[in-house]
Design goal:
Helices cover 35% and strands 8% of the residues. It has helices at 14-26, 33-37, 57-67, 76-79, 92-96, 104-111; strands spanning 47-50, 73-75, 114-117. The termini are far apart. The model has no long low-confidence stretch (mean pLDDT 82).
Length: 133
């Protein structure tokens, strides 16, 4: 992953990475970064990666590498269209839906072999609301 050109600044926080890299690449497409990159041959996730948006990309990548797990990985930052684009009929709220039981997180969890939690000292992912679900 480290040699990929989009990982040129591994110091970015995930939230900054999405804003500076992911959103411009996917803007106007109505597609998530993962689907845009793999649209010719979409991948079925084997591992769901749960993370906070306040870790650096470097910590995120290193945590996945340390896990020794093999993907395909489902990462919400890359698997949900982040541009909230009403003109394309794709909003984040629309993708998440009104019932978490049928939203993307629960749907992915039902279909993967494993959930990998990326833990860092910068933030506590267990404070995120969907974990209560």
């Amino acid at each position: 992953m480290k040699s990929h050109p989009h990982y040129s600044n591994l110091k970015y926080l995930m939230r900054d990475y999405v804003k500076i890299i992911v959103k411009p690449i996917t803007d106007g497409t109505g597609l998530s970064y993962a689907l845009l990159r793999n649209r010719q041959s979409p991948l079925k996730a084997k591992v769901m990666v749960s993370h906070a948006w306040d870790e650096s990309i470097q910590q995120f990548v290193e945590a996945i590498e340390r896990s020794k797990e093999e993907g395909p990985f489902w990462v919400c930052a890359f698997s949900i269209y982040q541009n909230n684009d009403d003109t394309k009929g794709v909003t984040i709220g629309g993708q998440l839906g009104s019932d978490p039981e049928y939203g993307p997180f629960a749907t992915v969890l039902r279909g993967v072999d494993l959930m990998l939690a990326v833990l860092t000292a910068e933030c506590d992912i267990y404070t995120r609301l969907w974990y209560a679900h």
